Amino acid sequence: MSKFYVNTTEALQCLRADKHGVVSFEYIIVAACIVAVVIAVFKTDTSISAALAGGITKISSAMAGL
C-alpha cells in the first residue's frame, strides 16, 4: 500500500512541476470564452441565427445530392 502511495505522490509532484500543459490550458480557456460570446450573439440576434441555419440547410442539401 505504501508503494502505491509513494508512486502516486511522485506522479502528482511531477504533474504539478510540469509547465508544458499551461499554454494548452490557457488556449482552452480562451476558446471557451469565444464560444460563450458567439453563443450569446447568436441567441440574441435572430437574423444571424436564421441566416446561419439557412446556409447550413443549403449546404447539407447540396451534399446530400452528391
UniProtKB/TrEMBL annotation:
Keywords: Membrane, Transmembrane, Transmembrane helix
Regions crossing the membrane: 20-42
Superkingdom, taxonomy of origin: Bacteria
Protein name: Pilus assembly protein Flp/PilA
The organism of origin for this protein: Bradyrhizobium elkanii
